[in-house]
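call fold(seq) -> tokens
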Amino acid sequence: MKSVKFLLIFSILTLSLNTFAQKGKIIGKVIDSKNEPVFMASIVIEGSGIGTATDFDGNYSLEADPGNYTLVFSFIGYTSQKQKAEVIEGKTITMNVTLKEDILMLDEAVVVGYGRRQKRDVTGSIATIKPSDIGDGAVTTVEQTMQGRASGVQITSANGIAGSPMKVNIRGNSSISAGSEPLYVIDGIPVTTGDLSPGSLGSKTSALADLNPADIESIEILKDAASAAIYGSRGSNGVVLISTKKGKEGKTKFSVGYYSGIVNATKKLDFLDAKEHLALRDSVLVWSGQEPESKETEVYSNWTRAQADSLAELGGTDWIDKFIRTGVVQDLNLSATGGNEKTIFYIGGTYHKEKGFLVGNDYERINGRINIENKATNALTIGTNIGLSFSNNKRVPTGDDGGLGWAQQMLPYLPIYNNDGTYFLDNNPVWQLENTHFKASVFRTVSNLFADLKIYKDLSYRSEYGIDVLNQIETEFNFRNIQVENSMSDAWDRRTTVYNWNTNNYFTYNKTIKEHDIIFNLGNSMQHSSTKQVGLHGWNFPNDYFTTPATASEKDGYGYETEFGFVSYFFRANYKLKDKYLATLSIRTDGSSRFGDENKYGWFPALSAGWIISDEKFMESIKQISFLKLRSSYGFTGNANIGDLSYLGYYSINNGYNGQSGISPNTLGNPELSWEKAKQLDLTLEYGIFQNKISGSATYYNKITTDMLMLISLPPSSGYSGIWRNVGKMSNKGFEFTLSTKNLNKAFKWSTDFNISFNKNKVIDVNGLPPDAFESGQPGEGRVVVGYPVGQAYLVEYAGVQKQDGTLYQYDNSGSIIDTFNVVAGTALYYDINGNIMTKDHPTGGDFYTLNRVPKGKPSPDFVGGITNNFSYKNIDFSFLVSFVYGNTLYDDPAKRQLGDYTRIAQRKEVMDAWSPSNPDSDKPAIFNEAVNSDLYLYDASFIRLRSVTIGYRLSEKYCKKFKLGSFRIYISGTNLLTYTKYPGWDPEVLRNVDTNSQAGNISFAGPSFQTPQVKTFTAGIQFTF
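ret:
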């Protein structure tokens, strides 16, 4: 019994002692290499959620149970350190740590064109995007990596079609008739852009479509003249430098990534169903005093009201559902990297396949990359970057060409098929979908060879030769419509080859003399590009088994070949004094075959300077400011992105006259044609506070473009269609702000990146040309109006609805009353050029459109931007990107028919808001089958979009080692999941014309035509290394 009591008492005492055992304490101070305290540095016990952070003086205190631990000290901008610590019960130990600056972060190397600079030494405006900034979600295109993440850069997706291009604008649109797209340079090679497809289902060639996002090491966007002037005549629209991944010395590391998911349209418009549409017909007849429709009344092309009612009872036809589906996307990426002290390599391969949300639209791409670098001698390094790609794109008609564009026009009470199985209507969009086949196959290589020679300690020489070779094959077959008399099948076969080579040779002199650092670059660049295209068209085939043009009974063809060349010389000098006073001078001269002998060469100088204020002694007492830098630049760039040999003029060779071959004049030559010129001022303040826990920049810029390259129309009597001339002036000015914060840096980490850009574009002068001299298709689209942005909507202004029957005055052009006329209730009213009221049937001056249009709305936004948040806790990571566009308008061209033309086209549900006797307070006109171009259909297209969201889980190091893996992660990801907008159309993010190297592409901002919405994706993926 005594033994039992003893054991019981002993157990209680032991438990008490354990319960009240004292913990140990670790205290200390964290400083940097300048002996300055590091505020908010993270101290975490490895493998646990226990941690703390330093106070303003760099001090910390951490309690833990007795034992041996590893402490991890970290802070953004510094290399993390691990320290062993033994915690003893009731004892306090001191552990002071000095964090060293992470050279890769504080002195991060930035690609600047023909070289690299440390980020703090850069005096130009350069936005850098790295894979770590993007996150580890599913990324399909390179443009997606930039979208919403770089200030001053607006990226707009053309639509949600698989393989569709994007439009990139850097600091606004800088041209009218010449190209407005930035110069893309991949591993030092300027690459091919532009529209290579003349077919109706063609699509602009994206410079980046054939590049695998997983192969990218960094993207630098050169925005100001000081940065872009080194590329001279091609830098006016900005420059995008893309560097692919390089090998790393060490044991070969293999990486595998795979994701798969579903794709859908971001939105489906709501249209009246068959019963609702027929009820609308009835209501209009009633209030307009017309007789109701009988069962035998033909409502559309031999289709009676009785047949329409019967089909409506069965649910009618949802035409759009026949064209939209849930698609599937898959992506497999493999890579290997490694090497030794002599040779390093990176090898990557990707297979991407997408079944788009439009029926019939399929896209697949195969990428391969080999990057090798060899240190041949102590002085010589040689290497190569080889990128290969092959893609197949099965395209479908869209917009005005058919497909979904036609489907959204079809009346819901019409059938797809007749009772005998034939198609209802000759222009049936389902027939077109099932009988039109278009495929574009592209093989491309963007590769280079390079050699770096260290001549002696301070002088080196680099030579690189690169090629961009593109072969595109387009095949198209349209089956004959057996329901149409004399219908014949027809086919196209188009072959395009682009061979573009580029060579760069330059010296670099890098010298430090006491407090002076000097870097000189001197070199030259040459480029030659040739494009050849041939096309064969065949029709009248013996039967439907023959589908190639060569087998057709009748055929014709065409062909063209063109080329251009550049030769350039450049010099750049970088000077740094005391590691805080910075200056850069650059000058480049370009010679181009696109201009005549008198104007073949252009000079493009730039000057920039910077001052790192935070390194001054008077800043030492301001501990809160970690970094403060003021920089400014001014320089000149150019634009030569027009047709090859435009100064000579063009003649066309064809057989258009009575089947006879001949030559006809096209554009008139202009030997005085010269560069489009841009001058730009940039002023920026960069800052970092609390050991760069908060950092950012504020920028003001002003860019003036003069001698704009414009294609001016000539009267038919001249025998020529137009002439290229240097006329006009335009400005782009604005502000850019960036902000990065490290909100939490303990076991739970949270960081935020924010950017916003304000740009104001204005056409200053177009040599007196009227707005209609610049148009891109049809009324209501953009024009060029002096004092307004490029692509300004030019429309008649809507004034409201006539509320009751009455009388109005009719005016002449001077504003004098010349007559009166009767107007019925519900009639749409408009303002004439003098601000007086008119109607469509009684326009001022006798011409409704030509005389009474005015600039309305804004084709470009007031501001754009994005905000990214990254979170992590232990092995879980979560990130999302929200992008926003505010202040622009879109002219919804189809709305003028889908909100009133009720007997001929499908109607949106908003048509029920139109004026009627039962809805007399409506400000929308009554339904009179009248389609009028006015600002009634000009809508606010501002939007906020959840661009991407990703959540992932990483396997712990312990389990990775168990399975012999370097890392393992699974994730789910989504794009375009949510959108907030007041725009009533399909999607506020849209391009009417994606060819940014044409006048139509530059000014077609005003609105879409039967558009295709953007794509929404939801994917799950896996990533691991070994």
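Residues 1-20 have pLDDT under 50 and may be disordered.
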